[in-house]
Design goal:
Length: 204
């Protein structure tokens, strides 16, 4: 039986009053605050406390700095090359600057919460690497949303390709596939169909 996480429960000082953070029996944190900005500060604190390693690794990978920060392995150099070509950081600061004042203030409150947690707790993995994360900024949040979008699209593409292979192997005709994916199967000739029937897909 896995015990719920501990150590997050506390009261933070917010701009509009105290921010209460409590975990339920399943270990899920709940934030109670007098304003949306303070609630987002609390949420940022929860993320910085529970998910700091994931956030730091996402930022490092999205910036194309995994090899320099973690390990100069060939695989990470290849990964960094990909993400530097994608350049997910481009214009992130400009995007933050274009936000309406209210939205920017809420995002900044979230980052304040993340940084409070980072100052309070360092995951043992980061301590082992002697890596001290730089402060979390609004542009970092933009980067992470772009990274999640890219990974989500990549996963969706892989899922769609698998469905196409499974439909071909189940005997779906080219005409039926064309109705399902209009205008997308111009290259689906007899030779490609033959090859798709031989593809081995891993078990789900």
């Amino acid at each position: 039986m896995r015990l719920p996480k501990r150590g997050l429960e506390r009261t933070l000082a917010g701009a509009d009053g105290p921010i209460e953070i409590r975990r339920d029996a399943a270990g899920v944190p709940h934030v109670y605050a007098a304003s949306t900005a303070d609630a987002l500060l609390g949420l940022g604190y929860c993320h910085g406390y529970d998910r700091q390693l994931q956030m730091v690794l996402g930022r490092v990978v999205g910036q194309g700095r995994a090899a320099a920060t973690l390990d100069a392995a060939d695989e990470l150099v290849t990964l960094d090359t990909l993400f530097r070509r994608l350049d997910l950081t481009r214009g992130a600061a400009d995007e933050v600057a274009r936000l309406p004042p209210r939205s920017r203030a809420l995002l900044e409150a979230y980052c304040v919460g993340v940084n409070r947690a980072v100052r309070r707790r360092t995951p043992w993995e980061l301590a082992l690497m002697r890596h001290r994360p730089s402060p979390w900024r609004p542009a970092d949040a933009i980067l992470l949303t772009r990274l999640m979008g890219f990974l989500g699209l990549a996963q969706t593409q892989a899922d769609m390709e698998r469905v196409l292979v499974e439909l071909v192997q189940a005997g779906a005709s080219p005409e039926l596939l064309g109705e399902l994916l209009p205008g997308q199967l111009a290259m689906l000739d007899a030779e490609l169909l033959h090859q798709l029937r031989r593809v081995e897909t891993p078990a789900r």
